[in-house]
């Protein structure tokens, strides 16, 4: 696991600021950016997967029951899933709530 | 000793690139750089240089191709002038931040407008802060030597930075001079095989040119600045090593007749040779005048400049680029900054001259010396904004 950018001093920077560990962008917690988060109402959900397809961060996953959840480590709270949801089962709620 | 030949300096420079055995040349023709890349294209077409010649559609693409090539671990060359440099500007900065050891000859030419194809230093000064190592060569021999020097420095694993060789367009590029070619054996001895610090290769995947968030950007920039500062001893070593191999060495700051000099000219590029003639004349008249030549522009040689001006009361700095509405010229501005707070700091008179190929003769340098004497006699402090636009008709 790479260090957070805030733990790196200038001497830790590799020449040319290269990234020598492939795929370590997956460690980046884009979920920090979120102010609202998606909540699914399973009574309305038809398991169509439109939210899964439209999520620009591939943060929506199918769970064991066939419903969909957002991985809050990555979910930025953009609301595209709620916008695209056919049945209107996704509601964006304030993080503060 | 290598063979001494009478040859156009641009052709000699292209031959030096051939002797460096580059893997790729990407360039777009622009006056007065043209003869260098034309000859390289011929060398590749004739099978005398085993390299890819990429005839790009613009300088922006030229530097982009160079970045890709160098990132793959190929020894890479390009060459441009003026508007070409302006067009490749954004990639010039990226090459340095990626620490790619590209070598570029910049055949110095005025930036438009008015449109001009002739020589001054307005192009290079527009990329003063691009992060490249920047050197000035005064003549054909220095240009030839500095091509091989540039690859040695750029590819030094402790440096890994691009190098720009400045040469005055037309005044040097299109002139036939006696140039001593290196022997193949000397090149082999001086220039080791290129072993890149970082390289794009499937065996060890890395990312180059990643996004930098505010949390890391300053650290990345400090690291880049320190790399350029730390390149200095390796630059000096490469010049000293050249002296051992071919018997010609160079320094960041070179001096001429500085013994007992109270007044000194500070010059860069081919004007240095003309100024030397003026200094000979002034010395014959008993005037204590000497010359300081600035060869290394980046990283800036602070200590060497301070050492060179010791005992000098009045410094005449020649600038061939304008900082509009500012301190006159970038060179005089930086020299003042470098000397600020030093004991017995000389007064610095900034002269702007030689724009777009306007001749500046030895007589002109003698006249500039006279004007500086008048300034000193007036006993008023010579301030930054008191620069003189020399030779301009009223």
Write the layout of secondary structure elements.
The complex is a heterodimer of chains A (97) and B (394).
Chain A: E1 36-40, H1 50-54, E2 60-62, E3 68-70, H2 80-84, E4 90-94
Antiparallel strand pairs in A: 1-4, 2-3
Chain B: E1 4-8, H1 9-19, E2 24-26, H2 34-45, E3 52-54, H3 59-71, E4 76-80, H4 82-87, H5 89-97, E5 103-108, H6 122-125, E6 133-136, H7 140-155, E7 163-168, E8 176-180, H8 184-190, H9 214-230, H10 232-246, E9 253-256, E10 263-267, H11 271-284, E11 289-294, E12 296-298, H12 302-308, E13 314-319, H13 330-339, E14 347-352, H14 362-377, E15 388-389
Parallel strand pairs in B: 2-3, 2-4, 4-5, 5-7, 6-7, 10-11, 10-13, 13-14, 14-15
Antiparallel strand pairs in B: 1-8, 6-12, 9-11
Helix pairs in contact in B: 1-2, 1-7, 3-5, 7-10, 11-14
Properties at a glance:
heterodimer, A: 97 residues, alpha+beta, Alpha-Beta Plaits, 2 helices, elongated, B: 394 residues, alpha/beta, 2 domains
Describe the protein's architecture and organization.
The complex is a heterodimer of chains A (97) and B (394). With 97 residues, chain A is of the alpha+beta class. Chain A has helices at 50-54, 80-84, and strands at 36-40, 60-62, 68-70, 90-94. Chain A has a domain at 33-97: Alpha-Beta Plaits (2-Layer Sandwich). In chain A, 10% of the residues lie in helices and 16% in strands. In chain A, strand 2 and strand 3 form a beta hairpin. By secondary structure, chain B is α/β, with parallel strands linked by helices. Chain B folds into two domains: 4-246, 3-Layer(aba) Sandwich (Rossmann fold), CATH 3.40.50.970; 253-389, Rossmann fold (3-Layer(aba) Sandwich), CATH 3.40.50.920. Chain B is 40% helix and 18% strand. Chain B contains 14 helices and 15 strands. In chain B, helix 1 (9-19) crosses helix 2 (34-45), helix 7 (140-155) packs across helix 10 (232-246) and helix 11 crosses helix 14 (362-377). Chains A and B meet through loops of A and helix 9 of B.
């Amino acid at each position: 696991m790479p260090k957070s950018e805030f733990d790196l001093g200038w001497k830790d920077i590799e020449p040319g600021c290269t990234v020598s560990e492939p795929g370590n962008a997956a460690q980046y917690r884009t979920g920090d950016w979120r102010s609202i988060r998606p909540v699914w109402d399973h009574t309305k959900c038809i398991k169509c997967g439109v939210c899964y397809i439209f999520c620009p961060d591939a943060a929506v996953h199918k769970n064991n029951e066939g419903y969909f959840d957002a991985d809050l480590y990555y979910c930025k709270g953009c609301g595209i899933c709620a916008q695209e949801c056919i049945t209107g089962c996704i509601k964006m709620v304030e993080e503060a709530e | 000793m290598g063979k001494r030949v009478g040859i156009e300096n641009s052709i000699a420079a292209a031959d030096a690139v051939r002797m460096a055995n580059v893997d790729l040349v990407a360039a777009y023709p622009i006056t007065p750089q043209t003869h260098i890349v034309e000859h390289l294209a011929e060398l590749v077409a004739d099978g005398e240089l085993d390299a890819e010649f990429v005839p790009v559609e613009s300088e922006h693409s030229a530097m982009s191709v160079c970045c890709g090539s160098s990132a793959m671990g190929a020894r890479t060359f390009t060459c441009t002038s003026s508007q070409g440099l302006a067009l490749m500007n954004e990639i010039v900065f990226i090459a340095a931040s990626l620490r790619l050891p590209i070598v570029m000859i910049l055949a110095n030419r005025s930036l438009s407008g008015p449109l001009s194809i002739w020589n001054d230093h307005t192009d290079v000064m527009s990329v003063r802060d691009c992060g490249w190592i920047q050197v000035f060569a005064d003549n054909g021999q220095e240009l030839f030597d500095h091509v091989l020097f540039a690859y040695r420095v750029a590819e030094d694993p402790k440096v890994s930075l691009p190098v720009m060789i400045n040469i005055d367009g037309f005044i040097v590029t299109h002139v036939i001079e006696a140039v001593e070619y290196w022997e193949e054996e000397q090149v082999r001895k001086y220039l080791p095989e290129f072993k890149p610090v970082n390289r794009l290769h499937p065996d060890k995947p890395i990312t180059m040119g990643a996004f930098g968030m505010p949390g890391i950007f300053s650290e990345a920039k400090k690291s880049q600045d320190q790399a350029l500062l730390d390149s200095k001893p390796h630059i000096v070593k490469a010049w000293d090593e050249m002296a051992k191999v071919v018997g010609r060495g160079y320094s960041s700051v070179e001096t001429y007749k500085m013994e007992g000099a109270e007044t000194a000219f500070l010059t860069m590029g081919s004007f240095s040779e003309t100024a030397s003639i003026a200094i000979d004349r002034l010395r014959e008249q008993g005037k204590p005048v000497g010359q300081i030549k600035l060869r290394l522009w980046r990283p800036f040689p602070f200590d060497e400049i301070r050492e060179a001006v010791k005992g000098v009361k009045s410094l005449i700095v020649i600038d061939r680029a304008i900082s509009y509405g500012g301190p006159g010229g970038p060179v005089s501005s930086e020299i003042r900054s470098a000397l600020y707070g030093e004991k017995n700091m000389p007064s610095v008179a900034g002269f702007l001259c030689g724009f777009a190929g306007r001749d500046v003769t030895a007589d002109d340098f003698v006249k500039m010396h006279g004007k500086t004497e008048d300034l000193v006699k007036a006993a008023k402090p010579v301030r930054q904004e008191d620069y003189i636009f020399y030779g301009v008709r009223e």
